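User: Good morning. I'm curious how FE2/S2 (inorganic) cluster would be positioned relative to this chain. Could you predict the structure with it bound?
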Amino acid sequence: MLKASRSKGPWVQEWATVVSHDGQGDVYKLVLRAPEVARRAVAGQFVEVRCTAGRSLVVDPLLRRPFSICYVSGDTVCVIYRVVGRGTALLSSVGVGCEVDVMGPLGHSFPDPAVGTGRLVLVGGGLGIPPMVMAASRAVSVGRSVVAVVGARSAAYLAGLEELRATGVDVVVVTDDGSAGARGVVTGPLAAALADGAGEVWACGPEGMLQAVKELCAGAGVPCFVSVERHMACGFGACIGCTVPRADGPGYLKACQDGPVFAAEEVKLGGA
Ligand code: FES
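Assistant: Good morning! Here's the predicted structure, ligand included:
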């Protein structure tokens, strides 16, 4: 049975230097020189980033913010994020050359793509698209056939699309309003890919989307892995603020430590 897997080593805390930091609207692409995190990271893992620069002992906000790793290039790590509150607003003003405190890589990654068989379908919704970039690169590097299905409410919300296309995989785009790709939602192209004999599906995005993906894959008998989004205060299992209901009985799993990537049948999604 395929399983979510861990990193190539334990997570580290590292002072990372901002190599580039570009915004378009409220979406920012942050590239950090973080050699130890980069060396250990595997697709599907995340980092926790302090939102203010510098090594002051007084930090505000205190809690780091979690971001999926979009890709690793040499000793750099890229994340793509949207400004949604005070923390990410502060982070968006951190300039090139500044040092930020980074912890990572954290959590379970997607499975080893060299172990699975058949065409791999990556499904990304909104800010669930960036982690599919590293997933695509990793799968391509082991010779896996890959198609990515990505969707968002409109073209402006397709974060990471350019980076995903740069991996060379086939990309199918859908948007709610038809401003990019076909008008529709990801389940349409996913159903077509499943009917075409897909061997495995990895998905990240809003929970309603993940539930729909899970149901389609279960109906087709195709293994499915989902990466769930949660507020993650600590990132390493201490605060119990990132719970996900278990599917096999009462109780909860921790998205930061047991996930964020789960086999779809392990977790209840979207209150289902
Ligand atoms: Fe603290 Fe998961 S983020 S336990």
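The first helix runs from residue 35 to 40. The CA atoms of residues 73 and 122 lie 21 Å apart.
Let me know if you'd like a different ligand tried.
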